[in-house]
Fold each of these.
Amino acid sequence: MRWVQTHRIQDMFPALNLNNISKSFGLVQANKNIDLEVALGSIHGIIGENGAGKSTLMNIIYGMHRADTGEITIGGTKVDMRSPADAIQYGIGMVHQHFMLIPTFTVLENITLGSEGGLMLGEGRDKALKHLQHLSSSYGLEVDPHALVSDLNVGQRQRVEIIKALKGGAKVLILDEPTGVLTPQEADQLFEILKVLRDDGVSILLITHKLTEVMDITDTVSIMRQGEMVGHRKTSETSPQELAELMVGRAVLLEVDHTPAKPAEVRLSASGLGYTNQQGVVELENISFEVRSGEILGIAGVSGNGQTQLMEALAGMMPFSTGTVNILGKTLTAEDSITPRAIRDLGLGHIPEDRHTHGLILPFEARETMILGFHDTELAGSGKLFDYTAIQQNCADKMTHFDVRPSNPRLNAKNFSGGNQQKIVIAREFSANPGVLLVGQPTRGVDVGAIEFIHKQLLELRDAGCAILLVSVELDEVMSLSDRIMVLCDGQNIGIVAAEDADRQTLGLMMAGQKQETAA
Amino acid sequence: MSKPTPPLPRWADIVLLPMINLFTALFLCGLIVLAIGENPITALEVMINGAFVYKGALGYTLFYTTNFIFTGLAVATAFHARLFNIGAEGQAALGGLGATLVAFALSGLPSIFALPMALAGAALFGAFWGVVPGYLQAKRGSHIVITTIMFNFIAAALLVWLLAGPMLEPGQHSPQSSLLPEATWLTKIHEILAWFGIKVAATPLNTSFLLALLGCLIFWILIWRTRLGYEIRAIGQNQEAAHYSGINVTRVIIITMAISAAFAGLMAINQIQGVSHKLILGFTAGYGFTGIAVALMGRNHPIGICLAAILFGALVQGGTELDFEFQIITREMVLLIQGMIILFSGALAYMFNPPLARFLARFLRVRTKEKNYG
Amino acid sequence: MADFLYQLLLSLDATLRIATPLILCAMAGIFTERSGIVDISLEGKLLSGAFVAATVAAFTGSAWLGLGCAILAGIIMSLIHGFACITHKGDQVVSGVAINILASGLTIVLGIALFQQGGKTPSLAKESRFTPMEWWGVEMLDSVPVLGVLYRQLISGHNLLVYLALLAVPLTAFVLYKTRFGLRVRAVGETPQAVDSAGISVSLLRYRALIVGGALCGMAGAYLSIAQGGNFVKEMSAGKGYIALAAVIFGNWKPLSAFFACLMFGFLEAATARLEGYEIFLIGEIPSQLMQAIPYILTVLLLAGFIGKPHPPAASGQPYHK
């Protein structure tokens, strides 16, 4: 309310100003001496790699975390941001990367939460409804107020989030990686809405790690790397090359030395693979492909289009409903009772998409997490009981070979950096010499040096004859590592193209569901 | 808030912090004793004398300790798989039933056969009472805390029915069974010592104490040295990762609950085959719940569990002494102490962590500095 | 037939009396559990309430003061629970166990210290209890067949707390579904992050839910010791808190359904007392222990998904970390 009254005077000030913000979590410094200025009525991009500290910074602006040091100034007034309630009062709204919605509530209930008005719900709810209808008509944010959130799709849920963020008359809108879950078309729609909002005087902070988005929509951009702000640019005066350089911290983007593949016999294939979940949603539909020894089949697609389900179904972690899978000569149908154990015993290795959830047991020592999945092999000792000398030796060897730092087998898995944690998983799975390897997000949250190492290892394994199926949200990674690329959209195989024929534009259209002439 | 907490040194985490928690609990109990007009120091003295000093005191203390080792191991086994087994009470009751039924069924057989079978009966019946909630948790997602609570009540009702009806000793009015065949009785420790010419006071302490210690060893090997133990711990720390790695989560959860409940069931042998020689209603007397405190205090490690079990054994035994010495403090004081210990060693286990860590960090830094200059 | 109906009526009457503490505790459980806190400490709060009510009533002679202090006692126990598992993010189940055992110990220790009657409190005079209230017009309606008996036995003739318990059900439903507090409580039990990001304090909200729950448990305790009974006896809660928890689960964390579950559990107990020694056609005598175990068995069956599908609050049992 304070905002509205003094609005005119504050026009001359930037919408948001950060001065020397720092924040540590334990021993990790997430933000270091950050300065930032966001102009009124502009779209300002914050770009950086995963783990660069973007989300932490936004959570500080929104009052979810408190900065250790530094000042936040909004419209020329220095503010003490102690909680989201303060942020909302100062006219800041946020759309979180992981939606903050209550699935068992209706859209209207979700929007009412936090601005109920009085002790009773009636009035606040009516106001929220009016507000919702207003935003629906002026920005095209259409959504049924009485639908349960659990029944909405991702795009619709995001609209609810935006409506929520705008409801207090927000003048600064923060969007944290908003397009990660959207198709290119949905992203375009979102951008149209953002432009209208900007023209209405709302300042927008767009957090992303995608260069194209920054170039397409922002007016200004700030670049973060390893917790620090490394540059501010006008979008019209910069180039993707320069931004990439600033993000990564060195001259060129990674170029993988991708030698031609020598594909041999088929080792992994799927035919008519489908999966319908317990709620009756079709998550995988009629997917067929084959991967040969000595090649990498990459999967491209907007995240959430069935990649996770496909990998987990192939790994035996999740059932499938229709079709067959053939792994190293063994054919499996939906009727077979498939377990991860059975699949592993066939000779399949799996680097899971989320190493914290699946790949590692964080409180375990490195040596113990190094035998995860192999604890009943001789790696844990040849006798009935565990042989910790052998376990320790196994871990030490692999740490040396895969350059895990620090190479201390007794250190808990949680105390390694993201890149080294990933190397532990890779060391474990690669060393088993799998005939088929599923690789999910091999370099997510991994520092640059480790990325190169991991890419090199993957190609070496391919050349040794392994059949590799690769999933990554980074289109560049898929394009530079794969020999052929399969595109998933809505749980369907849109097509498979040879890597040399694939360009961003073709793949982008396919990711949006447009079928192309299938090659390869 | 903004100041990060430095990590606590390992020794402080294992020794100092639990001691601080324990003393906070005891201190608060002392305040309550003071508030009701008695001297807490005298009360403590009476309890220590009653638990360790008087003739036969130690035997009684270790007798109770035996119960707590078994129930502590039971709770700890489940804890390692991050399962909360509140059902040790009911599982112990079923264990008693198992031992009794097997003992009666094998009456007439020699001890060498009947005794171990009765022990196995206790373990198996107890295990069964844990397997059902385990199965429901693993297969159907039923919250094991609630199901094990419910199973305690169901077990209690079952025992009341059996002991007031079908199993009631003829001519008896209080709910208890007839005497077990002597072949299934466990030998008293004082009798064993007497064979070697060592004379100690007659106490209910029996060979199940040795079995409990053996249980600790088995527990240690199981959790830290076997493949099953690895699977149990993996599930406890990250169930999704365990599934990913090929561990059969459902199966291991059920097996874990079986082992956990078997330990609880074995508590019954101490009471029934060791002392009363018959199934008596309510013989579990809350020892199953105390197992939670024992496991929490003992940090789910057999050595810790033994120490905590001795503490609680001493509390129970020393507590009975309170009845004789005081007008208004009775053995129920022990319940209060137990509640405080669960609160501070369990629910508030890490309350003192940040201040202690900060204090130690400063203290240690000062000391290193002195070393540098000195 | 008439005799059977009269017996049934008496059973219903007894059902209401048995169900009263269950209903109050169940409503308490709904508030705390819906806010995302596992509440196995209903039992301990109930017991504390019973002890404090009887003690205060014994000293002051006032049932009202007894009730007020019982409510306070319930709230204090709740605050301990909150301190452990909200402020210090301790395990909610462990904290609940601690409170239950603490309540057992404290009530006995203090009871013996105060009254030296082995844990009992002195019997209360009629004036310091909540006694049955006879409603207006009972005499007049007596002459009317059926209705008169119904009015006298079932509607009239209960103590104040029985009516309060009956009132607590619609009130809980109203608060939960029609007020700001209720909306927030339901939200924080499902997705605390959403509540936090809406600028509402998760901790404060959960504390408030706990306080409401503690007050209701305190009332239930007062019912046991100064309304239904005339003094406190050690362990007098006798598992009623757990049955109430079972009713909450059985009622799928909804006030009205939980209320019916309480009535059903109450009826089972009332019927048990009446069926003792009776042979039922074709079935024979039902062991009373089986009847007593039915609430627990039903709850297990429900949790196992054999009767409907349980929908516990999604964030139940997890401390909130930013």
Note: The CA atoms of residues 43 and 241 of chain C lie 4 Å apart.
Amino acid sequence: MPGIDECLMEAMTLPGARGASLVDWNSGLALGTAGESPVGDHETTAAETAELARAAAEFDTFTAAAEETGAAAGEDPGPPVEDLIVTTRAGYHVLRFVRTSFDSSVFLHLWLDRDTGNLALARIRLADLARRLVLG
Amino acid sequence: MLVRLAAERATGALLRDHGTLYLVDGRVVHAESPAAPGVDVLLTTAGRLPREGWDEAVDRAGAHRAVGRFLVDSGRLHDGELEICHLGAVFDAAFFALSPTSGPTRFRYGVGHWFGTVRPVSAEAVERETVRRRELLDAVWPYAAVDTAPVVPRPAAPGQHAGARRRALLAAADGVRTPAELARVLGRPAFHTLLDVRRLAAAGLVETPLDGAPDATPAPTPAFPPVPPVADPDIALLRRLRDALEAHL
């Protein structure tokens, strides 16, 4: 996969996709965006989703057990939290953490329409996209 | 000035005291600052790229201003990795280069950078993000003194946790290193380290130097008389007290 834009374009081909972005959860920066934002402004959406992602990525409740599993396997297992799913009356949001082999804190955010989106399919495809974004 | 250069689709280097922005056709293609670790530091510190691999790329492609491209074409990095790492470094350096204390601004037309173009971003987006980042720092903990002072950890309150990334930062804080030095040691963007230090200071896990007053402009008429400074405020305790009081409202 060539890069951020191609990755986001591919995410937008998923059924019911309304918006996609690549966001840094530490700073709230949108590194790339495609489609719409639920609030009409991708930068606001990036800052807000980043707050949610940061809480999940940092609270021990979500990370402690996962980190023990990784240590037992003896290899870098990537981010302890894999994804976050928020369901609303109008749609689904899937946040998928991207594993990089240098220090980074990025995730893919996909916003799906509630009626036409397929949450299970989107979660699997987003995981694959996140992997190919950095592994080619 | 940046907005004007973007409007006239200028190509060249915007030089300031704390860093340099490189423009091509009015869009930002690269930035560097002595305060922010470069792409080389981010990639080699984590072991993603050996130092020799980086040096070879600079030797072979630097003259053509295509080091970024060479890293991908020679199989050292993937496109997505290069874009994520480079964009992170550009916004990081731009934050320091465009800071209000960065002194006079000069522009040299036609000057390019040897790293080459990876993913240009609009000058407006860079400026907007820089302002947002300054506001974010002050929203977290409005004491700029912690940005440049040596990071001195404080003992955690019982049951207080910092999260894995900030635990690593605290472990590297030896009481001498500043946030900028810690960013280099850890191979992390400098702004991210500033933000983590401010979060730690707000949680009472890092000392806040007493010399500085809050940077946010004070409210025009304070509702209460000013409180004399306390030598050693137990911020974690105060926060728990506040939470307990709010829970009873």
Note: The radius of gyration of chain B is 21 Å.
Amino acid sequence: MAETAFTADDFQPAAATESAQTVSRPSLSYWQDAWIRLKANRRALFSLYLVIGLSLFTLIGPLIWTVDPSLQDLEQISQPPGANRDAVVVMPHRPWDGTVRLPEIRGLELAEPATTQSVRLAWAPLPNAAGYRLYRNLFPAGEGQALGLPLFETASLNERHFEDRLDLKPRTYHYSVAALDTQGRMTGAVHRLELAVARVVTAQEAQAMGLVAEAGQLKPGDRIKLRAHPLGTDYLGRDLLARLMAGARVSLFIGIAAPLLFIAFGVIYGAAAGFLGGWADQALMRFSDFVVALPFLLFMILLRVASGVQPGESGITPMVLAMVLLSWPAAARLVRGQILQIREEGYISASRLLGGGAPYLVLRHMIPNTLGVILVTMTFAVPTAIFTEAFLSFIGMGVAPPTPSWGSMCNEGIKTMLTTPHELIFPALFISVTVLAFNLLGDGLRDALDARMRSAE
Amino acid sequence: MTGAPDRGGEAAFNRSAARQLGLFGLAILVGLAALMWGLNLLASLTATAGGAPPAVDAANNAITVMLTEEPPQLDSTRSTDQVSGIVLGHVMEGLLRYDDRGELAPGMAEQWRIDEGGATFQLRADARWSDGQPVTAHDFVFAWRLGLDPENASEYAFILYPIKNAEAINRGELAVTELGARAIDERTLAVEFERPIAFFDKLTAFSTYLPVREDFYRATEGRYGADADQLLYNGPFALSSWVHGQSLRLDRNPHYWDQARIRLDRINVGYITSDPNTRLNLFKDEKIVMANLAAENLTNALEQRWHIQRHMDGSIFYLDFNHREERLTRNLNLRKAMILAQDPGELVYKVTKTPGYLPGESLFPRFLEGERGKFRDEHPAPTYQLDVQAARAHLEAARRELGLEAFPPLVLLAGDNPVSNIQTEYFQAVFKKNLGLDIKIDRQIFKQRLAKMTAGDFDLVLAGWGPDYNDPLTFGDLYASWNLNNRGRYASPEYDRQVRIAQGAMDAPTRMAAFAEMQRIIHEDVVIIPNYERGVAYVTHPRVKGIVRRVVGADTDYTYAWIE
């Protein structure tokens, strides 16, 4: 056994060095760690980009695509995206007295070139006719009675001309004129005509649409391009892209403002209930149960009436208010549960022993530890709020025309779903994508912020 | 998360994963297809078992139709709406009625004589109620007294005013027994007129003039017309069941006098919906025999190669101004500015887009008869042409006259349905673009809109009017200062004078001149902005013939229909 000889040096305190405890990896805060985990989740990251893209679409979009969302382009009603927009300038419409400058009329003939302004037709007499009925069809008319849309009917044999101005589109039409007997029944004798309609505008219309500065700059026969509508137009010729941007402002404002407010309130309420405990907790939570039991739609309507929204004004404020008043209990319950759990943790007792007061405990220890849950609730509340807005606007309780919102646009688009589906598809797509993006982001955030709640990949 | 497997294992794993995924997807597809098929089968089973009957039920000689709304009630003395009019037109019959060509024909009355002072109606001997008892002259007297009784508060009481003392009774100044209509005997009805009237025969076909039997009415204790068994019928059909909010069933009335003209045994009102897409689908699925087409359904109807028919229903639609003292729209220059800033042609051809709609020019629609031909051919309506410059000049003049810095937003009251929604948004943009005027749209359901119109709670209202009887007066007296349907409270002594002339004169030239004068005043005073005359595009089942659409009276009438 070796003798150990202690010297005085051995009893000197150690010199303080920087590298006493080296952390071999860089130190990560809670948020940095969460961010790394979020970045690893491709799905969540993708939805984060989507959310950023939507925000840009809403905020920057209108600065780039400066089209008035309520401007009606009646030349291009219900136009699908990417439609041809060439037009020829013509004189303003004048009433037609039926004079035809053709040498001879055989069958059904065009009296003047067919344009979207008017199609002027004249026809030769049909045998045994006591009257005529004129039809227009989009398809070649078959045999029998199904000749198309009845546009005109006359019991006069001399009135053998008609001017069609109804909703003419630049496309091919099939016209037929059928002879009627004295009872108004079709005799079977028919003249037919297939014709292509050219798109025209008047110089005044071009000026009103902002295509030229002065109507005088254009003369009949000039070629001109109509306004561009990248996503097409709606039933009044309003630009769908501009309306989607304007609608996004309403939808996202409600989607973000309402959850922010009601979750903030829910957090304070829930934290108070959880921290106080006892009868105060009981009372507060029974009141939140009561609020849960209130029917949202009824409450919403009552609020709208009570807040004195004049007819023709948008009811966005009462809508947000109703959501805030009725949606906070979910967040409050969640936070209360968390606080109740955290209250019993060792570090809280330690902090208390060290003299931490109630506000300090709540603000420093409890709320930060529930932030993950709060943030996740928040991201899940956003799509719900957007959906509620869409639903309320869909049933006509939301924004007032001409302000668009995605929900009201769907409501208008659904009527023409079969003929012009783009009017429904685009706003519906935006609602779906937004809701999905926020949901996936919320899912990713939950994984990233709270390791215990991680969903199994 | 899975750990990174080695290279070779990864490919094998991917292959097997892909195969499993593919199999799983296939299984889901097959499962879904089976589920769909099963549900479809189930649906068809239940439909044939107890659901709604098909459009044409040849075995029972029955057809199925739809209504846009449920009749609020079927008390003829109080009914105001078109849907009640349709149902009443099938189950009741007045002194006169309209036939399948829209002409007046004898109904309960076999013969009648009308002169300046009054009229006498001879009721037919075989006119019976659905309980077998005869229809008597007392039933008409009772119904008319009821219609005028202030306690009954019928909104259509004014249509009885040509009868002596009617107006005074309705105001509560005279007892109902003072009415100038008496039953001389069971089958003879004598009517005294307040003043000479040229079209009393046409009035008697209107629903307020339908008979009501006193003992039955008393027995219902205020529930008359509220249910199928709370109503007595004298028309070709009788209501045998009325499930509120769902369906009505009309069966042939065995006591009806003219059995020869009824060819159907039953009419089912299987659906009550105002949604045009539902209507289209019901027709496509052969659930109903007739469907009106909305503009957005037309392409679909063309694709289906249906025989599309057209009907002008005689209704006019217009923007009505509020002429009350405190309203800006009382200012003539403002009204002129607004009428000059819009073009009804654009509205009809580009916005509403339904065949049959005609651009509005006048308060008097084109179907009205004049002296020899059509009224509108004999007295063409003066019109305004779109002129934005002139409109702005009028607006500026109005602004100065009213002493305003700028115009506050005007409230446009309208119904809440697709057709009026699109119009209100169109007008909102037009007045903004051409005049810089802000328009607030106030969408209300029918009842609420009517209440607001009556209260004068609007600047402009999207209104419509259909004819009650086949005479221009049904439109002309609308703007008489005393007419309660004059919701904007337009009042002009000259206009009132012309209405009095048209009411009192017996000869056509004087009356038509008065109507032409009214047309001129409406135009010059810009009382309304005419929008359009309505047309309807509709399709009917190829096996069902004889469905009658008419301008005055029940539109649509199935009493003449038959299955081929």
Note: The two ends of chain A are 60 Å apart (CA to CA).
